[in-house]
Amino acid sequence: MILHKFKNQADLDRAAADLIISAVRAKPNAVLGMATGGTPVGLYQEIVKSYQQGLVSFKEAKTFNLDEYVGLPITHPESYRAFMQRNLFDHIDIRAENTHVPNGNAADIDGEGRRYDEMLYQQGPVDLQLLGIGHNGHIGFNEPDSHLSRFTHKVTLKAETREANKRFFNSLDEVPTHAITMGMGSILHAKAILLVVKGMEKAEILDRTLNGPITTEIPASLLQTHPRVIVMTDCDVEYKVSHS
Ligand code: F6R
Predict the structure, then answer these.
(1) Cα separation, 168 vs 87, whole angstroms
(2) For residue 242, what pLDDT is reported?
């Protein structure tokens, strides 16, 4: 793991955007793994700025989003498809057919998971996977559990995750109870991973992610097993390279 610490979120957003832009400039047909939530909004804005300045093109790039709510119409502003259109896709030159978000309204959600994994397998591996982290250590919507799934699958969102995401809805009741998420296998299969963690309230879970035991009870701790993880944060944490 490589840990980059930033004094403010504006610098963090710029650096994270630059890493993604570099990946696409180095490989125009890069496959990018995308995240939603509050964390990436600023870095997506920076990517859009660079695109508008002619510094990068996404014409050949492909994207695969981590997750989507189950049962929320994609026309709902908080669906992750709508989020991606509003925050990124509508403002850059990526081809619509090259953007992939799991279909949370599929009649057969298990079948949708298989379809998504098949596409990932055919078009992947992901060159650079962007991740945020939940307060409980979830990545994608892989929630803490005694075991984790390798494939794209349906999950029941934990109460704390629905509580955290309530801020995007009018009330807790409106927050979907289920989601479909890429599994840990797909996430860890990415060639490189960029984990962005913002806000001091996430310092403790980031410390446990970086320095604690590898456990399915903190899904992000499995990132310790990946050879190319870059963490960008404004949290005051250290990455311990030895026991002492
Ligand atoms: C979103 C996702 C989630 C979020 C996490 C943090 O696609 O996969 O793991 O990254 O819930 O959300 P924010 O950034 O809103 O704190």
Answers:
(1) 14
(2) 85
Order across the sheet with 178-181: list the strands. Answer: 67-69, 178-181, 153-156
Is 142 considered catalytic here?
no
Ligand 1 pocket, 134 CB below 6 A? yes
Q: What φ, ψ does residue 74 adopt, rounded to 5°?
A: -65, -15
- Joined together, the tokens standing for residue 75 give 């026309």
Q: pLDDT for 106-149, tens place per residue? A: 999 999 999 999 999 999 999 999 999 999 999 999 999 999 99
Q: What is the CATH number of domain 2-231?
A: 3.40.50.1360
Residue from 141, 168, 197 whose mutation best tests the ligand 1 pocket (most atoms within 8 A of CB) = 141
Catalytic residue among 143, 165, 189, 234: 143
> pLDDT tens, 42-60?
999 999 999 999 999 999 9
> Which residues, including other chains, have CB under 8 Å from residue 100's CB and lie 6 or more apart?
62, 63, 64, 65, 116, 119
Strand order from edge to edge, sheet including 192-197? 2-5, 229-233, 192-197, 128-131, 31-34, 62-65, 99-100
- Tell me if residue 136 is catalytic: yes
Q: Which residue lies with its CA nearest to atom 2 of ligand 1?
A: 140
Domain residue ranges of the chain, discontinuous segments joined by +: 2-231
CA distance 159 to 177: 9
How many C-beta neighbours within 10 Å does residue 178 have? 15
